[in-house]
Structures are given as structure tokens and as C-alpha cells.
Amino acid sequence: MERGNVLVIGNSGVGKSTLINAVLGEERAETGWGTKGTTDKLTIYESEKIPFRIIDTIGFEPSFIKELKAINAVKKWSKDSAKEGHEDNQINLIWFCVDGTSSKLFSKTLKDLLSATSMWRSVPVIVIITKSYSVPEREQNIEMVYNAFTKQKRYSKKLRKVIPVVASTYVLNDNAYAAPEGISELVDATNEVLPEGLRAGEIDIAEFKLNRKRAMAHGIAGVSTTAAVVVGAVPIPFADAIILSPIEIALVNALAQIYGVGKNEESKRFFNSIVEVGTVSVAAKSAISGLKAIPGINLGASVVNAIIAGSIVATLGEGTIYAFEQVYLGKKSVADIDWVKEMMESKLSSQFIDIVKTIVDKSTNSTDVKAIANIIEDTFKYSFSVSDSKKV
Length: 392
Ligand SMILES: Nc1nc2c(ncn2[C@@H]2O[C@H](COP(=O)(O)OP(=O)(O)OP(=O)(O)O)[C@@H](O)[C@H]2O)c(=O)[nH]1
Ligand SMILES: [Mg+2]
What we know:
Blueprint: E1 4-10, H1 16-24, E2 43-45, E3 52-56, H2 64-80, E4 93-99, H3 106-116, E5 125-130, H4 135-151, H5 153-156, E6 159-164, E7 170-171, E8 177-178, H6 183-233, H7 245-258, H8 265-278, H9 280-292, H10 301-328, H11 337-347, H12 350-362, H13 369-380
Parallel strand pairs: 1-3, 1-4, 4-5, 5-6
Antiparallel strand pairs: 2-3, 7-8
Helix pairs in contact: 2-3, 6-7, 6-10, 6-13, 7-8, 7-10, 8-11, 9-12, 10-11, 10-12, 10-13, 12-13
The structure holds guanosine-5'-triphosphate and magnesium ion.
Magnesium ion (MG) binds at residues 16-17, 31, 38-39, 56.
């Protein structure tokens, strides 16, 4: 069975390392006050006795610098999980530790938790109230945690359980002490939540990777749009402007690489049908005749040409990104040639002319290539449905 990773976070000195030792049943993580025994890097602990790994982290407090260090260490570790060979870096459950002896500034700590683990937005959280020596105070502390989470709307759904714990015996005097408590309840709760956490970790990683691909893809589409605007601004008759196709082919190629669309025969056909539909002549003809029909366009012919050329490439880029994303996500296959043709054609039809018109309107004052390219990019970005997966 797959082993989940539990990330333990919280302020410095709340008892994260002490808790980990209690769960492992041996003194492995260094503990202590002040600089001695304080955890200064992420450390992974494993034991045959428990079916999950535990990751000890740097405490958030007490200084601002340390807080940043703590948050960044978790973020870096998380980002690495998207790299090859680091698949084990997934986080499947968060143990968020708060100190049961001090109910101060909980919301600040909660914000730190959310910031450090923002990449893992579907991953569930168990809050552990450490040093819960006082039995009467437990109810109150549990309530405080629930209240704080309820206020953080987006994250209230992540909270699965609040467990008061005494990780090691706390001695008051010769006859009074608080015995360890809550550890086996914590292990049970963890095992219970882990299956959900394993799924959530996969979902979050996939989303992270997709967002990265999307950002790269839009970058390339933007560069290609600018290139097309430059080419279009040179006054040449559009019917002959097959001159755009090298830009288009390079763009589709680069996008195929980003989304890992293969180079086999089937992929080539998929790829070619995108380029075919996007070929300048078809779209340009309809765009030009569509634009001729609008009275009162005062822009110079070369600016209009530039806008049309840029818009064609921008549309091709957005359409290709959408198509490759569907393939990448397994929702469509490269065998779905009819689908991709239809989708691209619909984007380059009447709707396209309407969008070009709005760009022409917006461009009245600019003759600058970069400015025009920016207007085009902004207009076309996300013009394709990305409803199945969230925007960047
Ligand atoms: N008796 C008792 N002491 C505890 C308990 N939990 C934490 N402590 C003490 O609190 C101090 C800090 O605990 P650590 O486990 O080192 O705290 P930490 O959260 O790992 O701190 P950083 O690594 O600095 O972030 C140590 O002296 C622990 O012995 C507990 O359940 N019982
Ligand atoms: Mg520690």
C-alpha cells in the first residue's frame, strides 16, 4: 500500500518534535527550548510501526525571519514534488499543532499554515492541541480552533478533527502529573483520513503541474502573437500571407512539447488538423471580409492587418492550449480529429470576427506593435472554456 506523508507544522516550541517522538515510540526527533533542540530543516521520519511518514518542520515563530524560513522550506519542498524523482514529496495530511497552554494569536498562526501549504489546497488537516495538560481547558481550546477555522471560509472544509494531546508526561510535583494522552486517538484519526489525503495529494499535484504548463503555454502564445503582429504590420496582400504559418507551426510544436503530445502518426494528424484549420487564408479571408462590412474603421490598413494576423495566431494558441490540455487530462484523445477540427473552426468563425472588432475598437490610439499584441493577448486569454480546470 502507498504510504502517505503527514506534514507537521506549527509555531516553534509547541511540541511538534516531541509529538513525533511519541507517535514513533522512540526518541528520534530532537526537541527542546530556545536554539537547542529546535528543528531547523524538514526531516522525514519513518517507522515500521506506523503506516505513514511524518515530516518534522521548522517552527513558524518567534522571529519574522524564521517564519519566512519555515514557510519557504515547506513551499520549496512542495514544489519539488512536481519534479521527476520527487514524487514522494507529496503531502497527504497536515497535522497543525497549536499550544494548549497559550491561546494567543491563533489566527496569525493559521494564516501561516495556509500560506505554507497553499499548494495543497485539498489536503485535509487535523489540528493537534499540544500540551493539553489541563483537562477543563480542552473543551474551550477545541472550540477556539473550530471558530478560527470557520472564519477562514476557504479552509474550513479542510479541518477533519481536533485532538488534544499530551505527548510526554508533564510533572507538576511529586503527586501531580499529566500522563501521555491522545496519541493513539491521533494515529487512528490519521489512518482514517489518509485515504482521502492520498487522493487529495494526487489532485493537488496534478493541478500544480497543469498550472505550470498553462503559464508556460500562455507565455509562448504571447510571444507568437507579437511575432504575428509584426509580420502583419508589413503591408502585404493577405491572401498571400501564408507567411504566418511558420509562426503557427512553431507555436503548435512548442505547445505539443509542453503538454507532452507525442510524435506518433496519430498525434501528427491531430496536430496537422489544428494547423490546417488555423491556416491564415481561411480565417483571414473571413475576417477581412467581415471587417470590410463595418463602416467607419479609421485605422490604417497595416494596423488592421497586424490586428488580424495577431488575432489569428492568438486564437490558434488558445485553441491549441485547450485541445492539448484536454488530451493531457485524458478527456480527449489525439484520435478525436473531428472534435478538434470543429472546435478550432468554431473559434475562427463569426465569434472570431466579433472579437477582432472589439480589438480594432480598443486599438484606435495605438500603432505600437507591442501595445497591439498586448491588447490581443488580453482579449484572447482564456477565451476558451477552461471550466473543467481552474484558471491560473
Ligand atoms: N512534558 C511535556 N513537555 C512537552 C510536551 N510537548 C512539548 N514539550 C516540551 O516543549 C519543548 C519544545 O518542544 P519541541 O517538541 O522541541 O517543540 P517544536 O515544536 O519541535 O519546536 P521547534 O522545533 O523549535 O519548532 C520541549 O522542551 C519539550 O520537552 C509534552 O507533551 N509534555
Ligand atoms: Mg522541533
